[in-house]
Amino acid sequence: MKQWLKAVLMCFVALAMQLPVQAQEKRTPEEAVAMVKKAVAYYKEVGREKALAEFNNPKGKFVDGELYIFSYDMKGVNLASPNPKIVGRNMIDVKDVNGKPTVRSYLEVANTKGQGWVDFVWPHPITGALQQKTAYIEKVDDILVACGIYK
User: Fold this and answer.
1) DSSP 126-148
2) pLDDT at residue 138 above 80?
3) What is the dihedral of CA 19, 20, 25, 26, to 10 degrees?
4) Local structure of residue 123 (DSSP, 8 states)
5) What domains can be seen in the chain, in order of their start residue?
6) The pLDDT of residue 22
7) What CA–CA distance (Å, rounded) separates 96 from 102?
8) Across residues 51-65, what is the average pLDDT?
9) Which of 38, 51, 111, 115 is deepest in the core (most CB within 10 A)?
10) Beta bridge partners of 48
11) Is the C-alpha dihedral spanning 34, 51, 84, 97 positive or negative?
12) Cα separation of 85 and 142, whole Å?
């Protein structure tokens, strides 16, 4: 009996190891807006320097699975990103695969409306597949704070 149970358990383990990693549940627009509102409140509470340090902390309070805060100044310089290689770089000319100027679109929303959504196509960080994405943008002082979700 013990051998049979052991064999069954080994089969389940082997099958489980062959299953692809399940994608996380889709995040909602409401979650993205809430993350930005939380980040803006934190920015106003602790100031720019501390807030940006926390936004750039990969294990910080502004990273929740696929949700994370990113930030730009009004010239297109990245101030916060899950990709540390782009922090401090001017990304004004970055375009999605369809040629849409994503950073310029963020700045346009920030400067004309103060807050709003920008749609674009972006590679999914886990699968690498191109997917529709939307980012909620909010301007605070002379920067924008944003969070995106895959559609």
Assistant:
1) TT--EEEEEEEEEEETTEEEEEE
2) yes
3) -150
4) E
5) 26-150 (3.30.450.20)
6) 39
7) 6
8) 96
9) 51
10) none
11) positive
12) 22
> Residues with Cβ < 8 Å from 23, sequence gap 6 or more?
126, 127
Q: What is the rounded CA–CA span in Å between residue 11 and residue 136?
A: 45
Distance of alpha carbon 70 from alpha carbon 62, whole angstroms: 9
**For 88-113, what is each residue's pLDDT tens digit?**
999 999 999 999 999 999 999 999 99
In three-state secondary structure terms, 11 is: helix
Where is pLDDT greater, at 140 or 13?
A: 140
Q: Packing angle between helix 48-55 and helix 29-46, nearest 10 degrees?
A: 140
**pLDDT confidence tier of residue 24, bands split at 50, 70 and 90:** low
DSSP string, 15-70: HHHHSPPPPPPPPPHHHHHHHHHHHHHHHHHH-HHHHHHHHT-TTSTTEETTEEEE
Structure-model confidence comparison of residues 56 and 23, the more confident one: 56
